[in-house]
Design the sequence.
């Protein structure tokens, strides 16, 4: 927390702390102003709230004033000390709306001077409401949860695309080599890059983990899907290669058998001719 923020928050919260203490100690000072509003809001709240909640809503206006004062004190202290400042600022914003409507209804005043005074107080409270709303969204210069979640999602998408490209390159590079090595290289590239993406998403902060984890899970599923596609493609490529080898081996075997058969025929032919010639020579010798 910077010094400027500390001073500004303390100055803003001082109004709520002192006003809340006064409402707790002397609620009767505000009962007359709050009565018309509570007479309309309490029955409506009891009618629309669940039965388990409706029975705990107090009907005593003084008790409601004290509760509102306690909320202002707690929110003011949280905003001033910086411990739960955003939640405290949100509580102050919620308590300031009924307080402003109940204490400064300038539209119901008939006296011009009194109406002008109440209008000024009403506008002052509207300005305070704007201030606490801004304080409830102040992250002290740090990125908010939504920004960090979106940034983590985009980072995971970029890492997944990179992993897909690396897997394709590994498959092309090892296509003529061991297919299992190609698959392993692709899966390793996907796992390493996805791991880096998840680590960087988680490192964005504790508050962004829940939202970023959902984005990271989607990225993990996408990366796993891409890895399975790469594995199937490598298997198909291996099967095609095996079929080509078997086909080539079969052709060679057929040609070898055909050549052996031709050679056998020629041998038998030459043997027959040699026997015939030998027989003729034997007959000539006898004659």
Sequence:
């Amino acid at each position: 927390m910077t010094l400027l923020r500390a001073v500004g928050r303390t100055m803003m919260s001082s109004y709520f702390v002192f006003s809340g203490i006064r409402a707790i100690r002397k609620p009767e000072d505000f009962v007359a102003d709050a009565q018309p509003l509570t007479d309309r809001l309490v029955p409506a709240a009891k009618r629309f709230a669940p039965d388990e909640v409706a029975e705990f809503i107090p009907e005593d206006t003084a008790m409601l004033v004290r509760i509102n004062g306690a909320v202002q004190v707690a929110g003011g202290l949280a905003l001033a000390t910086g411990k739960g400042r955003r939640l405290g600022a949100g509580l102050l914003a919620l308590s300031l709306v009924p307080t402003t409507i109940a204490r400064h209804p300038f539209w119901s005043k008939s006296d011009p001077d009194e109406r002008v005074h109440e209008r000024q107080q009403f506008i002052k409270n509207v300005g305070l409401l704007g201030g606490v709303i801004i304080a409830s969204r102040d992250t002290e210069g740090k990125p908010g949860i939504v920004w960090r979640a979106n940034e983590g999602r985009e980072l995971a998408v970029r890492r997944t695309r990179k992993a897909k490209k690396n897997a394709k390159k590994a498959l092309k590079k090892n296509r003529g080599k061991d297919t299992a090595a190609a698959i392993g290289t692709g899966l390793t590239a996907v796992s390493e890059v996805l791991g880096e993406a998840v680590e960087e998403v988680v490192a964005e902060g504790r508050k962004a983990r829940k939202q970023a984890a959902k984005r990271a899970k989607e990225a993990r599923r996408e990366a796993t899907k891409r890895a399975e596609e790469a594995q199937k493609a490598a298997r198909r490529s291996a099967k095609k290669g095996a079929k080509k080898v078997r086909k080539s081996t079969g052709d060679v075997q057929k040609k070898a058998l055909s050549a052996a058969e031709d050679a056998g025929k020629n041998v038998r032919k030459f043997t027959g001719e040699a026997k015939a010639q030998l027989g003729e020579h034997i007959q000539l010798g006898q004659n």
Observations:
- The CA atoms of residues 253 and 259 lie 10 Å apart.
- The chain is about 85% helix and 0% strand.
- The mean pLDDT is 77.
